[in-house]
User: Fold this.
Amino acid sequence: MASDKPVDDLTEAEAQRALARLAAAIARANTAYHQADAPEISDAEYDALKRRNAAIETRFPSLKRTDSPSEQVGAAPSDGFGKIRHRVRMLSLANAFDAGDVGDFDAGIRRYLGLSPDAPLTYAAEPKIDGLSLSLRYEDGQLVYAATRGDGETGENVTANALTIAQIPQALNGAPAVLEVRGEVYMSQADFETLNATGGRTFANPRNAAAGSLRQLDAEITRARPLSFFAYAWGDLSEPLAATQWDSLQRLASLGFTINPLTRRCDGVAALLAHYQAIETARPDLGYDIDGVVYKVDDLALQSRLGMRSTTPRWAIAHKFPAETAWTRLESIDIQVGRTGALSPVARLKPVNVGGVLVSNATLHNEDYIAGRDSNGQPIREGRDIREGDWVQVYRAGDVIPKVADVDVGRRLPDSVPYVFPDICPDCGSAAVREPGDSTHRCTGGLVCPAQAVEKLKHFVSRGAFDIEGLGARQIEMFFADDLLPIHEPADIFTLARRDAANLGKLKNRDGFGDRSVAKLFEAIDERRRIPLTRLLFGLGIRHLGEVAATDLARHYGSWEALARAADMARPAAERHLAADAAETEERARAAEAGRRAEVKKARDAVWDNPPVDAAARAAWDDLVGIEGVGAVLAVSLVTALAQPRERASIDRLIGELSDITPPEARATDSAVAGKTVVFTGTLTRMTRAEAKARAESLGAKVAGSVSAKTDFLIAGEGAGSKATKAADLGVTVIDEDAWIAMIGG
DNA sequence: GTGCCTCGAGTTCC
DNA sequence: CTCGAGGCAC
Assistant:
């Protein structure tokens, strides 16, 4: 059959018929997806159609239809590009917004490395191009693929498109056997304006134009779009390019890449700020958009010592230019209710263009932000509050999240009144309470509140939780409001198929649901009856219990039964903890001015120990809060959530529907210190304490502050004192710094 | 007690 | 992406 024939074997007539069929099939899939949000075919099948369409169009350009699906930018539910996993993660950078932040950045690096404030420290600085980052992998000098950043771990294969960019070489001379070059694809302002004037569609800004062009499924369209590329970094390498950032860039330049001509080496903060000024001055005449200046520690050995924080490297920062702002009218203030009951005020704006994006909503954070105070009660806009009807200045924080920066009080109407934050939930009418010390109002309706219930369900099916294919936020909204087959709690998802059968399978005849999509949905739900404990815990949506805490709890208890039993046992202690907290708060208010801290402590202890909490409860509680990363706040939240009869019954119904709750996998034990608890003492000479800790943790060790029976190694630097004595008493292995470094492999 | 550092929660637009 | 807050080290 012609539809399965290799593209190269198609006759022209066959190709023409195939394109017609594909256009129809893709259009049908688009309609099903967009109008009902319930696709008739899977993403993979859809991708295959788009890919085949693009391939045929490439081979027979003259046959390309006027309604070609490849022209319909943004119509795809997911695109036709293959995924590529980056062997070295593509980083994002921390931001600095003023000279003070840059000073902090430099000081932090010096502290971490143990350098004095006046020791020489060289940085490489270059403009931050406002485009999209790309990773180019070369093996034996040949381009193997070009991949977008994606989420930093996995990007999309856009090789064919990258090859249409003149500044991206297909082959290199004298390159390392493996070389991943990273840089920014961008479109110059002049090219952007020409494209918008002559092309079929208008883009909001050069960045969007570059992104849209690079993601074309048909490389010939990309070829017609004038894109450029600056190299600024590298990923996987078979051998180092050079010893410094600067020299590495020079090496890339000599291999044929374009590096930004405004790249400079700067000694110290003053030189960085001077170069920032120079770039800001040059900005209007560069001919391409930039949004700041990037500073990197020049010495690569130092970069490697500094290492990573959770998502950003310690050795680099982006010094951003002030964000673009725009003035518009704030038409009204709406309140949204989140899954934890938090009431979030949202500004509904007269749509306004901010830095190339049309903004119509902006977050107002909380009551204090609207009133013009920060969380400490200090004025943030010199007392100017935000009111409905006001003229407000909007900007996009980090160029993404719209926020209200300022208010023009002069344009305020005489009858305007300060915004009164609601004290009842707009969705369910329950009281919305702001606890002392908290910045947000919270609806007290719990699961009675429809807004909370539906948000919790959305969280339950979200990516890190049950992640059920075909059951996203949209479908949850729909099923929540459904009369015939409602989903009001997680267990309802798993009874859906049974209930549908009892209803003679009516689901499949409704909007957006055909035979196949219903079958696939039920299948996807059934697959999740077997679920990792971590996902189950995270999916419950208990406040303060996120993915990381869920992992820690799952590791510690190993099974749902063990965790639930522990939570039930710890309940009296958790209740007492809350009572003690209340007593402490009360006493603190009374003793505030006298500064009698001892009294506060005494008031707390009087409640905590009187009468002593049942020993078993106390033990369960201590065990719970003893877990690293679990404190009293999370512990109380977990225990009380599981103690709510309504909530617990709902969880039990869910568990009854699951077939298997799988325990977490044991931690990888590659390194000799993985899973070990280590303690540092004395003065380390080859690295600072922070560095040693980060290194140990990156190898899977747990770093503790004091020696106990659980300690595996004590690393004793020079002048070790009581800890070494205690370690000897407890029979803990004591090693010196050199032995430690040997153990972790240099 | 103070000051990181991370995690959790909420948010917007494409 | 940002803010607030929890947890923990100094």
Remarks:
- The first helix of chain A runs from residue 12 to 36.
